[in-house]
Amino acid sequence: MPTVRDVRGNAGDEPITMLTAYDAPTASVVDDAGVDVILVGDSVGNAKLGYDTTLPVTVDEIASATAAVSRATEDAVVVADMPFLSFGVEEGESIEHCGRMLKEADADAVKLESGPHTVELTERLTDLGIPVMAHLGLTPQHVNQLGGYFRQGTDQSAAERMLDLAREHEDAGAFSLVLEHVPANVASDVTDALDIPTIGIGAGPDTDGQVLVVDDAIGLSERSPPFAEQFGDVRAEMENAVEGYVDAVESGEFPAEEHSHVEEDVDSLY
Ligand code: KIV
Ligand code: NA
């Protein structure tokens, strides 16, 4: 599924698979496995940069990670996740930041945590040739406003507001919509109401696709959200390898003869 156009046209067909990646080797594994969309999420802040939230992540950090992911990706659509306050403040600046992801970092599209403030911007970016993935439900860049990472759309009026915003972003030209941490029945109804595909995380089984943070999926994260499933135990594998290295150096087993080269042409220096 190589283009944004294919993703847009995929609603209701085979489930769309999306995972995050933030570096070249991970992107190459994810791409080789046939994942449709690679998201260079601002979750890099938690997953890789040691922050408690995504708020400190910069445009330069996302651009650098996106460029690395793009270099290692042959098939998947690469989407750059725009960081907190890099969009939605001033239009010219928003366009410049989003444009960098395509011009400098070879992304295929950007993702914006969406709200009333991103409807016009989504239309403007789309007009300019910058495809936009929208994102509703839990938008972690609003953590201070929300007071925590709570499920969203849990009462009738909030669910209706979410559906209205979803329609407005579809009309503005968004090619797909992430729904994060919303009740499965709400995600299902939003999915039914839209022509563009929905991609869920903590949103039940009825969205057109699923996304997870790759570190959660492979079992590398120290903590994962309750809706994530761990499909491997890479952290245990890394711990084994690192402990093995320490043991081998301390015991003198590493480096062995096969790791060393003796230069016969150099005589003893003393
Ligand atoms: O940053 C991220 O990883 C995301 C996904 C969870 C959708 O926004
Ligand atoms: Na994000």
Report on the structure:
This protein has 270 residues and is of the alpha/beta class. The protein has a single domain, classed as TIM Barrel. Helix content is 40%, strand content 13%. The chain has eleven helices and eight strands. It has an eight-stranded parallel barrel with strand order 1-2-3-4-5-6-7-8, surrounded by six helices. Helix 2 packs across helix 4. The longest helix has 18 residues. The chain is elongated, with a radius of gyration of 22 Å. Sodium ion binds next to loops. 3-methyl-2-oxobutanoic acid binds next to strand 6. Its cofactor is Mg(2+). Belongs to the PanB family. Keywords: Coenzyme A biosynthesis, Cytoplasm, Magnesium, Metal-binding, Methyltransferase, Transferase. Homodecamer; pentamer of dimers. One of its GO terms (molecular function) is 3-methyl-2-oxobutanoate hydroxymethyltransferase activity.
Compact summary:
With 270 residues, the chain is α/β, with parallel strands linked by helices. It is built from eleven helices and eight strands. Sodium ion binds next to loops.
**Which superfamily, in CATH terms, is the homologous superfamily?**
Phosphoenolpyruvate-binding domains
C-alpha-based Rg, rounded: 22 Å
Ends: how far apart? 65 Å
Q: Would you list the SSEs in sequence order as H and E? A: HEHEHHEHEHEHHEHEEHH
Cofactor: Mg(2+)
Main location: cytoplasm
Protein name: 3-methyl-2-oxobutanoate hydroxymethyltransferase
Subunit structure: Homodecamer; pentamer of dimers.
